């Protein structure tokens, strides 16, 4: 493991191979493990801030760089990163009832992190493009705390796709079985008006997982009392308002609480 650049103080970086893929993984902190999967367009400053927050809360964070340039902001290049990811076979952005190849890498990373850290298992946080990857990772017994923040795959271009849970039926059946036999729980977050993370997808997951799927839906409708834009999307990064009484701040604190309950 080599020292990361000064852009990411306190983080280390090194390659990790699993599931037939190799990606750089950035690491920081000690304690129970949490895999933090980046959202589009990659490990942007908001994702780093979330990772620092988790490390400060007592977790060992492992953040794989799956796409984009680590540290790059959300700018004109983001559309190109998204376009490339949408056609990449490992992400299968438009496929329904699909086991996405990249989830084999996420599961391997979760197992490896679990072996290196204390606690009963690890958490996995997926966001936006990668939101559903967190639930798919929970097929593995090493994952005890999947967090799905605004899961956006498959991209909802039809009612049937919006209802798709973002994982294959086999994966969802395994997760459902774990909720019944292992006490597995999952946490999902979205803004109420977010069309990229459709309400129908959350309804499907709630119907299958029941009380084991905790949902935080933040009101972003026109005229909402918290001044949120109806296009608000990134619950845990760019849309966080650092005021204790704001629902985005409370949602992020609930994520930390959920990880603490499940892992510590």
From TrEMBL:
Pfam families, alphabetized: DLH (PF01738)
Keywords recorded for this protein, A-Z: Hydrolase
SUPFAM superfamilies for this protein: alpha/beta-Hydrolases
Highest taxon listed in the record's lineage: Bacteria
GO molecular function annotation: hydrolase activity
Name of this protein: Dienelactone hydrolase
